[in-house]
Structure formats: C-alpha cells, structure tokens
C-alpha cells in the first residue's frame, strides 16, 4: 500500500495527544469499535474452524477461502483495533516501535487479502473453463502449496520494499502520528504489484467467468428432455459451479467496492490536500471488507450456516463429527 501521500513534511511537530473527557458518544464509539472487532474475529474464526474441521469442505476452492479467512482474521485481531483507536482518539497513543509493527502488518495483510481474492478469481475461471483438467490437475495439496508460497512471497516482498525504501531508512516518528512512507520508485512498484495487476486480473477473469456461467445456463436449458437422465449429474455439477461462481463474485464485488476508494485516493497522490481524517476513513473501509466477508458467507452459503450451528452447539466435539455432511 502507498502511504506516501500522508508523509507531508520532513519536520516533526511535537505535540501531545489532546485529552478527551468521557462522554456517552465516546463510550458508544468504543462499544461500536469492539463490536466490529468481535464480529470480524469470530466471523472469520468460524469459517476457519468449519473448513478445517469438516472433511467434506476440504476442497481446492475452500483452501483459498480458508486463506482469505485467515488473513481477514488477522486483520480483525491486529489491524482494525489499532486503526479504530487511532481514529477515535484522533491521535496515535502508542509508541513509534508499535506503530512500525502495526504499519508493516497492515501492508502485509492487505497485500495477502488482495492476492487471495485474485487467486480465487483464477481458480473459478480455471474450474469453469476447463472442468475436467481442473479436476485432474488441481488438488487440495496443490492449492495449499500455492497459498503458502503466496504468503511467503508477500512477506519477503514487503520486507524488501520497506527496507530499500529511502523514506523508510530516514523515517522520523512524530508523537501522535503513525505513518510509514515508501519512496516514489517503490510506491510505483507497490501500486503495480499490490493493486493494479491483481485488481485487473480479478476484473478480467470474473468478467470471463460470468460469460461462461451464462453459456452454461443456456446449454443446460437447451438439453433435450430425453437425455435429461443421462446428463443429470453433469447438470447438477455445472449448477453447483455456477452458484459458487456467483457467490464468490459477490465477495469479489464487495472487495473491489471497499478497495477502490483507497486506490483512487492513493493514485491522486499530491494532487489533493491530504487530510488525516479522510485517510483514516478510507483505510477503515478497506479493512471493513474483512468484517463483511463472513456475513456474505452466512447469507449465501447454507453449508456455512450449518457449520456455525454445529460449532456453536458444540456438536463438533462428538465422535465422527468431521464426517457429517454439511453440503
């Protein structure tokens, strides 16, 4: 992510965070913040438990959903609380070392989330365009290796980008501020690697996915009644793939809707006057996508609702519970 826009001056204005009186609005803000954090953490934790526990959910696509849920869980546990406290207090109340860890974590987890969504788009396109090849070549183990490699690559990329960035080496932390800037060259590279290329891939592939879904729907409607029994299994399989593509398309659409405001804000760079409040609100929108994803799964995935019921009623501790059919 590009934070160059907020690094406006080389001189640090020394100031103390303003004292706040405890009011009803102040308490309500913290209660709302706690609710958002709990919803994000426990919502994604339920997805993680469901996919890991039930063997029927051990599919290649669900490994990508699991990776996305893990990144969203970490965003809810490590990033959102600090950002909401910073926003409510209108001031960074922690030390510079904690700010550095927070910023590096937010860079890394945001890049992982974007790449997870891009991998989901690639997976859905491959599954619909070459279903037989996908079944034969793509396995749970294959996508687990892909996910682990992606996490490792993004981790080292973020370390390298910030270590070699000129602004990172000369970073001066101001009391009450928490910003980490990349220099102009690394900002350009970062925008391409983290935003432009993955988002372009997501948009192009999902456009192709919905074209394929429409073709499949037309083909199914045109099936002859006499061959219906012979092709029923294939029809059910194609319908399942179409439904999965549509639901994941909703996930992707919501993700892009949350991401684009920050992308536009970041691309404008020095052309606009930077306001800390606006910057924080745009960041909140990006990270709230991690809160929305479990809600989408609850609304559109019956298997997720069934898994939540089994988890909350503690039935997952029963013998052979992992073999229960949830789909």
Taken from the alpha-carbon principal axes, the silhouette is: globular
Q: How far apart lie the N and C ends?
A: 38 Å
For the sheet with most strands, the description reads: none
Helix content: over 70%
Number of helices: 10
Second rung of CATH, namely the architecture: Up-down Bundle
Tell me the total number of β-strands: 0
| Poorly predicted regions | 1-15
Determine Rg (CA atoms, Å). 22 Å
Structural class: mainly alpha
Q: Any idea how many domains?
A: 1
In CATH, what is the homologous superfamily?
Answer: Rhodopsin 7-helix transmembrane proteins
Strand content: under 5%
Which CATH first-tier class would you pick? Mainly Alpha
The name of the CATH topology is Rhopdopsin 7-helix transmembrane proteins
In N-to-C order, the SSE pattern is: HHHHHHHHHH
Which descriptors would you attach to this protein?
single chain, 327 residues, mainly alpha, Rhopdopsin 7-helix transmembrane proteins, 0% strand, globular, disordered N terminus
Question: Your description of this structure?
Answer:
- The structure is a single chain.
- By secondary structure, the chain is mostly helical.
- The chain has a single domain (23-323), classed as Rhopdopsin 7-helix transmembrane proteins, CATH 1.20.1070.
- The chain has ten helices and no strands.
- The longest helix has 38 residues, at 184-221.
- The radius of gyration is 22 Å and the shape is globular.
- The protein starts with 23 loop residues before the first helix and ends in a 15-residue tail after the last helix.
- It is a multi-pass membrane protein.
- Belongs to the G-protein coupled receptor 1 family.
- Its main location: membrane.
- Residues 43-297 form the G-protein coupled receptors family 1 profile domain.
């Amino acid at each position: 992510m590009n934070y160059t826009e907020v690094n406006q001056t080389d001189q640090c204005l020394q100031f103390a965070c303003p004292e706040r009186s405890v009011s009803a609005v102040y308490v309500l803000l913290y209660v709302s913040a706690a609710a958002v954090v709990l919803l994000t953490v426990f919502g994604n934790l339920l997805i993680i438990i469901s996919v890991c526990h039930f063997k029927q959910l051990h599919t290649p696509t669900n490994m990508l959903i699991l990776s996305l849920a893990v990144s969203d869980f970490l965003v809810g546990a490590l990033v959102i609380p600090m950002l909401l406290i910073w926003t409510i207090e209108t001031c960074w109340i922690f030390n510079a070392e904690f700010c550095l860890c927070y910023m590096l974590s937010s860079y890394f987890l945001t890049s992982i989330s974007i790449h997870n969504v891009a991998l989901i788009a690639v997976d859905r396109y491959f599954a619909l365009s070459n279903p037989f090849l996908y079944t034969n070549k793509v396995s749970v183990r294959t996508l687990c290796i892909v996910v682990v490699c992606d996490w490792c690559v993004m981790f080292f990329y973020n370390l390298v980008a910030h270590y070699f960035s000129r602004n990172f080496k000369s970073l001066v932390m101001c009391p009450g501020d928490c910003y980490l800037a990349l220099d102009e060259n690394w900002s350009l590279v970062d925008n391409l690697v983290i935003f432009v290329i993955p988002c372009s891939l997501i948009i192009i592939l999902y456009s192709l996915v919905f074209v394929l879904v429409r073709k499949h729907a037309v083909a199914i409607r045109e099936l002859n009644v006499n061959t219906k029994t012979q092709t029923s299994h294939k029809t059910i399989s194609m319908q399942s793939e179409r439904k999965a593509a549509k639901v994941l398309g909703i996930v992707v659409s919501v993700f892009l809707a949350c991401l684009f405001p920050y992308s536009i804000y970041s691309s404008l760079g020095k052309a606009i006057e930077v306001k800390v409040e606006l910057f924080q609100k745009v960041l909140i929108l990006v990270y709230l996508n991690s809160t929305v994803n479990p809600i989408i799964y609850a609304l559109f995935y019956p298997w997720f609702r069934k898994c939540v019921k089994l988890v909350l009623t503690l039935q997952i501790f029963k013998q052979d519970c992992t073999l229960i059919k949830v789909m």
